[in-house]
Amino acid sequence: GTEHGIDEAVALLAAATSVTVLCHVHPDADTIGSGLALAIALARRSIPVQVSFPHPHELPESLRSMPGVEHLVAPEQVAAEVDLLVTVDAGSPDRVGDLAGRMAGARRTLVIDHHATNTRFGMVNVVDVDAESTTVVIAQILQAWGVPIDAALAHCLYAGLVTDTGSFKWAGARSHRLAADLLDTGIDGAAISRTLLDTHPFGWLPMLSAVLGTARLEPDSAGGLGLVHAVIRRADVGSLRWEEVESVVDIVRTTADAEVAAVLKEQPDGRWSVSLRSKRAFDVAQAARTLGGGGHRFAAGFTAEGEPDEVLSSLRRALG
Ligand code: 5GP
Ligand code: MN
Ligand code: MN
Q1: Mutation test of ligand 1: which of 92, 117, 248, 303 has the most ligand atoms closer than 8 Å to its C-beta?
Q2: What is the ipTM of this complex?
Q3: From the candidate CATH numbers 3.10.310.30, 2.60.120.260, 1.10.10.10, 3.55.40.20, the one assigned to the domain spanning 204-319
């Protein structure tokens, strides 16, 4: 597919007779916030809509209070045929897992995303790599469509924005302006941030303690700029929910003398989901891409099999 603008997305959505919205595996606040905001807008225009994401993962607890969750359906309930299928915050078809097969049963497909590695796999692709969250793109679509942004929509959009900008740590002026407009609808930004980013069960603390003990600093890796890595095994995770392991990389990445941070997260199926972060000099999306993954310049990831040592060896090679 090729690159399209906001207006083409609006035309597709406005003309749709039924819509399926797909969110990515290990759903986060950006993909769910984007999906639910679209669903709320479509429902208001009386267009039937379903939102889903691939199992086995459940909806993170912190996202269960998001407006529009009533539009979420289990993957097996997703209609085989639909007028318009939309993916949100997914850079490639594999990011929607088994649900990628549903694209064949759609009359039209629309990809809305902000990943640098997006493969433009839709018939219409709205990919804005300068947007700091996919919800920024959704906000533009809703504005162009003439959908008034009320508190329910603002909640969904803010959730993606605050998460993908690391609580606005690396947010630019465009994101701050949108955040201000969203807060003007009366949403409680502090409560949304606390729920999404600053709330963990007590068991998170002993997990962190075990995992941070595995951290190693390799000053000569990553082209001599330094690599820090840590490994999260299933035994460390215990009964903690998957989203609790996602936050560990944000602590590991604060290491001075390491340009790149990597956290190896052992999935329930035994494969490794690897989170990569860089500070400024390194493009981790490129390294992730050579390992079959993708992402953004400063935040990327890939999935791998084998022992942690093997995964780390291929990572070192990919980092150069
Ligand atoms: P995280 O480390 O938060 O899981 O992911 C960081 C970024 O890398 C996200 O934007 C995500 O899209 C991307 N990413 C993470 N894991 C994978 C993967 O296995 N495949 C691809 N294509 N992208 C990934
Ligand atoms: Mn995401
Ligand atoms: Mn995103």
Answers
A1: 303
A2: 0.92
A3: 3.10.310.30
